[in-house]
Amino acid sequence: MRDKAPWSIKRELLTKSEDETDPKYGCRPEERQYPEIVKFGIINLDKPPGPSSHEVTAWVKRILGVEHAGHGGTLEPLIYVEWAWRSQSDRCSAHSLRGGD
Amino acid sequence: MTGVLPIALEEATKTIQALLVAGKEYIGVMKLHKDVPEEKVREAFSEFQGEIYQRPPARASVKKALRVRTIYYLDVLEIEGRNVLFKVGCEAGTYIRKLVFDIGRVLGCGAHMYELRRMRAGPFTEDNYMVTLHDILYLYDRWRENGDIRMLKRFILPMERALNLMPKVFIRDSAVDAICHGAHLTAPGITHIESGIKPSDKVAIFTLKGEAVALGTAMASTEEILKATHGIMVKTDRVIMPRGIYPKLWK
Q1: Which of A19, A100, B55, B176 could be cross-linked to B172 through a Cys-Cys bond (beta carbons 3.0 to 4.6 Å apart)?
Q2: How far from the centroid of its chain's Cα atoms is residue B236's Cα?
C-alpha cells in the first residue's frame, strides 16, 4: 500500500489520566503577548522568486530586528542542521554552509 | 512568488527540524519537448507514485548518491499542448525539477520544469495566514505606530503550528520543567496521547495549555503508553521550551 501524506493522517486524542493546568505558569500559545509572540513565533511567508531562502530569511530578521531566524523549506544534509543546533553561537555559520535553495 | 516558506524566529528556530523533514506539496508546469498523446503522459505520471529512486541534481548541495523518496500523490491537473499542469505531494528532499526531467525521459521526448510553486511545507499551506514580505513590512510598521498586537498576530503564528502534523503527547505541569532540563518522559507524566503512535515514531510533547515543550522519540505504541504505569515512554531529542517557565517539582 502506498504511504499516506502526513497531512491526510487522522489522529484521535486519547486520555491516559485527567489533570488540570495551573494558570500561574506558562501561557496558551494564542494568548501570548509581545515580546513572546515574536520569541515563539513563526511566519508563513510567500517567498518571492529570485533571492534565495537564506537571503529572504536574513531580510525578515533585519525587518523585525530579531537575533535568530531560520527557514524550514528545504531539506539539506541533516548533519549541517545538527551542527547549527548543537552550537547556538555557530548557528549563522552553519546556516550559511547549508546555502540557499 | 514561489510559495510557502516558513520562517521561525528566535526560540521557535528549535522547531525547524520538524519542518525540514516534513512533506511538501507543489503545483508545477512541465514542458514537454515533443507532442505526446495525453494518455501516455498520464501513464508516465502514474509510474512515479509511491517509492521512487532519485539522484540529486549536479548543483544540489547534498551527496550525489541515489536515494529513495516517497511520492504520496502525483496528479495531472490539465494538459494544454506541451504544457502539463501537475500537483505533487512528496517526502522532504524530493527534487521536483529532477522528477519532471525523469518523467520526460520515460516518455522519450524529454521535458523540463517551466514553473513551480510550493503549496505546502509540513502543516503550513497557502491559506494558513501566508504573507508576503510587503505584508510583513506594513503590519510591523502599523504595530510600531499604534501598538495594536493584532497587527503582529496577523503575520506571526505560534511556533506550535509547526508541529501540527506530528503525533502529540500531553503532559502534566509537574513533568514540564524536568523535560526542559533534558529528562526523558516517563509514564506518570502523561495525561493525553494521540492514536497511531508506533515505537521509534517522532512525537511532539505539549503542556496542557498547548505549549510545545520538546520533540522526542516514542519508545512504545499509543496502546502500550496508555497502559503503562512506569518507565520511559518518550526519549527527549530536542527541548523547545526554555527552562524555568513551569515550577521545578523534581530533584
Answers
A1: A19
A2: 19
Q: Which residues of A touch B133 (CB under 8 A)?
A: 45, 48, 56, 59-60, 63
**A41 CB burial (10 A radius; 0-12, 13-18, 19+):** buried
Give B192→chain A minimum CA distance, Å.
Answer: 4
Kindly provide the ipTM of the predicted complex, given to two decimals: 0.93
User: pLDDT value at position B56?
Assistant: 83
Q: Which of A72-86, B93-107, B174-188 has the lowest mean pLDDT?
A: A72-86
Contact in structure between B6 and B124 (CB atoms under 8 Å): yes
Tell me the per-residue pLDDT of A27-58, one tens digit each, with 9 for 90 and over. Answer: 999 999 999 999 999 999 999 988 989 999 99
Q: Which amino acid is at A51?
A: P
Chain A residue nearest residue B148, CA to CA: A34
Residues paired with residue B238 on neighbouring β-strands, in sequence order: B215
